[in-house]
Amino acid sequence: MYREYLEDKEKINFKFEQTKEDFIVDENPRKFSEKGNYLIFRVQKIEMTTWDMIAAFAQFLNIPAEKIGYAGLKDKHATTTQYISIEAKYEKALKKFKHPGIKILKTTRDKYSIRMGDLVGNRFSINLFGVSPIEAGQIEKRAMKIAKNGLPNYFGYQRFGRDEDSITQAREMIAGELHIEDAKLKKFLISVYQSYYFNEWLRERVLLSREQEGGKFLLLEGDVYLSDEGKLFTPKNIPQKDFEAHKVVPTGLLCGRDVFHARSAAGEIEAKYDDPFLYDKGSRREALIFPTDIKLDYKNNFDILNISFTLPKGSYATVFLEAIANKNFKASQIKRKHTDKKK
Fold this sequence. Notes:
Elements: E1 15-16, E2 23-29, E3 38-46, H1 50-61, E4 69-70, E5 79-87, H2 91-94, E6 102-110, E7 119-129, H3 133-149, E8 151-152, H4 166-174, H5 183-213, E9 225-227, E10 232-233, H6 240-244, E11 248-254, H7 264-270, E12 283-286, E13 288-289, E14 292-299, E15 304-312, H8 317-325, H9 331-334
Parallel strand pairs: 2-5
Antiparallel strand pairs: 1-7, 2-7, 3-5, 3-6, 4-5, 7-15, 8-13, 9-10, 9-11, 11-12, 14-15
Helix pairs in contact: 3-8, 4-5
């Protein structure tokens, strides 16, 4: 499994580490009404998965974890700030909550519990190590170009397990060769299966774009677009101007039932990465996203470049770093000792 990017330039061999000091993520949530029957907590967690954090609150309150709402899953090896919701009747008890890896930063209220996907995006701040002054300039130039032309919206390496073994499990399960009892694991493996074929479809479209458009994503007749109003549609003519203005973006298939399919030339490519026999519900995902609010701070004496940026929900910061570096990363390569930051 390999992710290709729109520009095939020389590799930049920086390193990064998913540690609490060097990889920071902040959720950008939906708006809250500041009144209602749900407490909304802005929570900072360190070296914990989202599931671990939810379990800590659930155990403290002696309630099922399903009673705690959250918008997205965040990495363990990072400092992350995210939002959770708990019924307001637990407000008094929660004043006594303490945990070494969790800090409640702010509290408000809302009429509704937080649900998966209830966020606008995420803000990242990541330290890149082993960056020379020349490379710092190259990284900034590439980052700004990606922000203009778009970033292929791949699922990152995190989606597929440390050794990318989850896709093998997913295929075996769907083929009936592996029986899985756990409902959550089954759902996860189906999403891995869908993600894998989306990535393979996107890889083919990126290679075609590199061949014919030289660094810009090639739109095809029959593509399904997502408008800035959140609607899916297939136009009669290719909406090149609206695409360049970031008003519409082409989408790729997450295979399954009850999903809008591409047609014509786009449909011919998409069909290669479809599974019409997959009973689970399908959907569509943006083929490109556009990083915003990019800022860079270079610490010249230490060869460290801090890059901060905002991505839409469901997108991977590591994919942005891969596009800048023009290389693929693996989970097994990321967390290194400080003595191994530069080859």
